[in-house]
Amino acid sequence: MLIEAYQIAEEIQIKALRTNYEQTPALLSSWDIFYVFDNQKFIHILNYGVLVFVNFSKIEKDEFLKFSTSFLEKPLQSNVNDDFTLLIDEQIHKTIITNNTITIKNIDYQELRIITLNLAQSVALDYYDTISLDLLKSTKTYIDELENFGKVRISKKNLLKVIGKIKNIKNSILDNLYILDDPNIVWDNEDLEKVNRKLKENFDIKPRFRDLDYRLKIIEDNLVLFTDIIQHRESARLEWIIIALILVEVLNVFFSDWLKVIFSK
Asked: Which of 15, 163, 172, 252 shows a CA-CA span of 20 to 30 A to 35?
């Protein structure tokens, strides 16, 4: 079976989707829905914008993707996706995980949900990795300007737009970092906990999250710097206004005294 995961939006309204979909979920929580079709095909829907298809044809996937569009928040222009192969071998005693395949003894909904969940987490991390790298590049452009010219050559309005955009995306990332949370079932089932742990190691979930967290901290430091630059600009502008007003007052006094001297003669 081919397992395919797609990040199609920043959020899926899973409650509304479940209400409007005729199929009854096999498993569900406040943040995910797991559908089973004749014990041969499966869909896992995660509210952070990921759909995972198991053993679906292209036509079937396209139909469901089309159906889901009504329940998307901030749909993506291009999908982030990944896949790997699921094998079933009744002769094995425990689940076997490699880079491109996972072999299970039989179809178990809870185990399959853990498998699709980890692929969904991996795809979501890919998406946020891409966003964070773009944010880092955009801030680095202005950091380079500071290094080369000693100032950021951008208007206050445009600089505020950059800060607003970065803050908005960064908040979106932070709001969805719970994607790395595991369902409660893994704490109650030792076998599922082992499968979950091995999958996280296979997808490098924790190292990738640390890298993402590190980039977010750098971006946050850059935002603080940009904010300081704006405050410095405003302070400097006010200082020049005060100097100009003092100069006008001095000139006014000087010319007033000068005119008095002239007219007194």
From this structure: 172
| Strand arrangement, sheet containing 96-97 | 27-28, 32-37, 41-46, 50-54, 2-12, 72-88, 101-104, 96-97
Helices and strands, counts by H and E, the chain: 7, 8
Residue 53 host element (H or E): strand 50-54
Cα–Cα distance, 121 to 226 (Å, whole number): 32
Q: What are phi and psi of 181, to 5 degrees?
A: -65, 150
- Tokens at residue 188, please? 């109650």
C-alpha distance from residue 175 to each of 10, 87, 119, 167, 215 (Å): 10, 35, 20, 12, 16
Residue 51, both tokens? 């759909």
At 183, list the tokens.
């369902």
Nearest of 66, 40, 67 to residue 55 by alpha carbon: 40
What is the full per-residue pLDDT of the chain (265 aa) written as tens digits? Answer: 999 999 999 899 999 999 999 999 999 888 899 999 988 999 999 998 999 999 999 999 999 999 999 999 989 987 789 998 999 998 888 888 888 889 988 888 899 999 999 999 899 989 988 888 888 888 888 888 777 877 777 777 777 777 777 777 777 777 776 666 777 778 888 888 888 889 999 999 889 888 888 888 888 888 788 778 777 777 777 788 888 888 888 777 777 766 666 666 5
Of 21, 76, 83, the residue nearest 52 (C-alpha)? 83
Q: Which residues are within 8 A (CB) of 210 and not within 5 positions of it... i.e. 6 or more apart? A: none
